[in-house]
Structure formats: structure tokens, C-alpha cells
Design goal:
single chain, about 200 residues, seven-stranded mixed sheet, 6 helices, 7 strands, globular, peptidyl-tRNA hydrolase activity, hydrolase
Length: about 200
């Protein structure tokens, strides 16, 4: 079974904030692929939705912990390195421009607290990540990200502007397609197809 996780913070006040990109994208994936409605999984402190794509069973999962405790929702589900290879974590990435995304495997956290929490909980970095850009970029595509801890915190917890939300909605279509390719054809095929976009 593939488990696809959207990182963010639960609660109304975090709706449409940049740090909630993973949750926002996953809800779009759920709608695009006709998954079931979200249901509460109290044991794993998460919201879940399930269906099959082809013959592959898939679970979408939104941790209901805060970002830096995201791993709590996965420690009972991902209990081996083999299972970790069927884990896909969708999260915001300051190093990518809004409207861009990259698929990676077996990489460091890049300082992302939610990713660090998952790696600690499942004791491996050997899982797939879909890193979704949230930073503004200039006309040449050079990313202009905030500098300093406070500026970064204010930026990621700030709400998307309307044009940014539109760009995110567009990229969600490609991410939904990429999820199908990941599940049905494998990560190498998905990386080859989407990382050059």
C-alpha cells in the first residue's frame, strides 16, 4: 500500500498558509482521484482517505499533530525500510519557486521540521518526497526567499496571496498526475517525467 502524506498544521487559523501547502495539495489529489471523504484515525492522530489506483491500494493521510510532530502519525504505519519505500511525503519547499515541484528520494530534510520528524519516527530517509515551491521568483526564475529565522517563520506561516493560490492550483493538476505515475510506474519514471518541468 502507498501512503501519501500532506504536511501542515491542523486548525482554521492555518488554512491557506504557505506551511500548509502539503495539506492543500493532498486535498486536491483526493478530489482529482475520487478518494473517499476524510475520516478520523484516532490511533494515528490523522485524517485518512483511501481508494485504489489500478491494482495499488492507496491511503492519503493528513497528520492532525502540529508540523514538528508529523512523524507521530506514521510510526505505527511505516515499520520497515520496505514500507518506507511506499511512503510519499508532500510538503512546502522554500528553495523552489511557487508553481514548481520536484520529486526526490533518500535525501536530507533541508531543515524542514515536518520531514525531520518523519525521518526520526520511521528511522530512514529512504522515502519519496514531493517538494512544492512556495517562494517568489524574479523574471529569470531566481528564487527570492526570506533571510533569517524570524523572517522565514513569518513567511511560511503567512497566507498565500490570490495569484499564488492560482499558481498552486495549477501545479496541483501536475502533482495529481505525478502521484499516479509514482504509484503505477515507479519513482524513476515519475522523476524523469516531472523533475525536468
Amino acid at each position: 500500500m502507498f501512503i501519501i502524506v500532506g504536511l501542515g498544521n491542523p486548525g482554521e487559523e492555518y488554512t491557506d498558509t504557505r506551511h500548509n501547502t502539503g495539506r492543500m495539495v493532498l486535498d486536491q489529489v483526493r478530489k482529482a482521484h475520487d478518494f473517499s471523504e476524510w475520516t478520523e484515525d484516532k490511533k494515528n492522530k490523522a485524517l485518512v482517505s483511501e481508494r485504489k489506483i489500478g491494482k495499488e491500494k492507496m491511503m492519503l493521510l493528513l497528520p492532525e499533530t502540529f508540523m514538528n510532530k508529523s512523524g507521530v502519525s506514521l510510526k505505527n504505519l511505516i515499520t520497515s525500510e520496505k514500507k518506507a519505500e511506499h511512503l510519499v511525503v508532500v510538503h512546502d519547499d522554500l528553495d523552489l519557486a511557487i508553481g514548481k515541484f520536484k520529486i526526490s528520494f533518500n535525501r536530507g530534510s533541508g531543515g524542514h521540521k515536518g520531514v525531520e520528524s518523519i525521518t526520526r519516527a520511521i528511522k530512514t530517509e529512504k522515502y519519496i518526497r514531493i517538494r512544492v515551491g512556495i517562494s517568489p521568483a524574479n523574471a529569470k526564475g531566481v528564487v527570492k526567499k526570506p533571510k533569517g529565522e524570524e523572517a522565514v517563520s513569518d513567511f511560511i506561516l503567512g497566507k498565500f496571496k490570490k495569484p499564488e493560490l492560482d499558481a498552486l492550483k495549477k501545479v496541483c493538476k501536475h502533482i495529481s498526475e505525478a502521484v499516479s505515475v509514482l504509484v503505477l510506474e515507479g519513482k524513476e519514471m515519475a522523476m524523469g517525467k516531472y523533475n525536468s518541468m
